[in-house]
Amino acid sequence: MTEENQYDAVIIGAGVIGAAVAFELAQRGWKTCSVDKLPAAGYGSTSNSCAIVRFSYSTYQGVAMAYEGMHYWADWSNYLGGPDVDESGLVAFHQTGTIMIEAPGGHHEKVVPLLESLNIPHEHWSVEKLQERLPLLTDGVFGPAARPDDDAFWVEPTERIIGALYTPDSGYVSDPQLSTHNLQRAAEAKGSTFVFNRQVVAINQEGGRVSGVELDDGTQIAAPVVVNVAGPHSYLVNDLAGLAGTMNIGTKALRHEVHHVPSPEGFNFETDGMHVSDGDSAVYFRPETGNNILIGSEDPECDEKEWVDPDNYDQEIQQEQWEAQVLRCAKRVEGLGLPHEKKGVVDLYDVSDDWIPIYDRTDLDGFYIAIGTSGNQYKNAGVAGHCMAELIMAVEAGHDHDADPLRVNGRYTGVEMDLGFFSRNREINPDSSFSVNG
Ligand SMILES: Cc1cc2nc3c(=O)[nH]c(=O)nc-3n(C[C@H](O)[C@H](O)[C@H](O)COP(=O)(O)OP(=O)(O)OC[C@H]3O[C@@H](n4cnc5c(N)ncnc54)[C@H](O)[C@@H]3O)c2cc1C
């Protein structure tokens, strides 16, 4: 073993969360090596993220972490160490604000008390105020969501929505891949190493704890700490470590489509739109470059979940899902057409059993996991990196996190985050929405 192949930590995966873990450890003086089988940082599921930054989770801890996480994006240049840290430039955080459509019994009923308890700025908007701000939004109650081949889909609404919940601080990041490159460069500036086009094929162990990894070209990298941040492949990496069946919460890969459609004529959604979360129609949408609207799904029960092998799944947009998502959005957005040409992306969520991430140690000493990000953790990259670095340092210093879950204070808001909430051995959280809303 050469000295150059010895590190304090190996991080498997250079997506947005993995790169943030590398940066946070490097900031604490750790010599880290990130390994990714793809050619560059953020080329995995991060590359197709909608990169929406919002706080509308179903649990106190989910909302607390997301609001803390927003501040990293608002302070991005400063956080990374200055505007020149990346020769490719830094990403922009478009703080458009979010409106969440309020329909009777809607998700806002869970969210408002949580925003209140955390003092997160929010307002209730009447339908009139909503339509003043976004005149192209319609006011019908369309839910519960159905598929277009179901007659229920075409029934005219008889009720009007209550209004909307507005959170001014939320928005989206322009380019998730570039944001990961930003983190890579910031970590490298602190001494981190990144190895691309190499797959981790074995987790080495010695004396009952992790001792490093083996790459697909036979290279051995030694480190007393290994962190699994492999996104939709996370369960396969856990299997490599011999951890199958050792955790209460599992993860698996879910196929997800995001569609891009032109703004309705006469309205420039790219410049004048904002992020809209419409649980009533089971879609979310936000401005997208080229005067487009980007449409994602809020995973209604009527849509069959496509659990897939992360190395073998259909990467084409399916006609049926295209019609379901775009037509759902067209009910809310007046004048939105169903274009003949399908545009958008297909990628994978790494979904945990309760759609809440797992940020934890494992039963293998020295082996840590930041997985199960369930389509909703892009926004939390910075804060997740911070929490993982604090957790790893505490456990390596002898803290028994399983018996006495670590609490970590937010760098920006000071909020206390209970990392026991994200434990691999928690019971499935009944408060979860079991969807992208966590
Ligand atoms: C379509 C879509 C929309 C989304 N929208 C949002 C949103 O609006 N807001 C939000 O907050 N979140 C969103 N998310 C979720 C968010 O993007 C993810 O939670 C986040 O990007 C996960 O980052 P990661 O670093 O954990 O994983 P990834 O980006 O998937 O990175 C994992 C990396 O590990 C590498 N890897 C895997 N196995 C190995 C191995 N054996 N050896 C070496 N390398 C390996 C992969 O190549 C990959 O690059 C969305 C996700 C998707 C797919």
Structure report:
By secondary structure, the protein is α+β, with helices and mostly antiparallel strands. The chain has two domains: 233 residues, FAD/NAD(P)-binding domain (3-Layer(bba) Sandwich); 177 residues, D-Amino Acid Oxidase, subunit A, domain 2 (D-Amino Acid Oxidase, Chain A, domain 2). The protein has ten helices and 23 strands. The strands form five sheets. Strands 5, 6, 7, 14, 15, 16, 17, 18 and 19 form a nine-stranded mixed β-sheet that branches. Strands 9-2-1-13-21-20 form a six-stranded mixed β-sheet. The termini are far apart. The model has no long low-confidence stretch (mean pLDDT 97). The structure holds flavin-adenine dinucleotide (FAD). The site of flavin-adenine dinucleotide has 39 residues, from helix 1, strand 14 and strand 19.
Keywords for this structure?
single chain, 438 residues, alpha+beta, FAD/NAD(P)-binding domain, D-Amino Acid Oxidase, Chain A, domain 2, 2 domains, nine-stranded mixed β-sheet, six-stranded mixed β-sheet, 24% helix, globular, binds flavin-adenine dinucleotide
The percentage helix is 10-25%
pLDDT averaged over residues: 97
Look at the structure and name the CATH superfamily of the largest domain: FAD/NAD(P)-binding domain
Q: Tell me, briefly, the overall form.
A: globular
SS summary, helix count: 10
Rg, Cα atoms, Å: 21 Å
Known CATH architecture of the largest domain: 3-Layer(bba) Sandwich
Work out the number of β strands: 23
Q: List all distinct small molecules, including ions and cofactors, that are bound in this structure.
A: flavin-adenine dinucleotide
Distance between the termini: 43 Å
Main sheet: strands, sense, barrel: 9 strands, mixed
CATH class of the largest domain: Alpha Beta
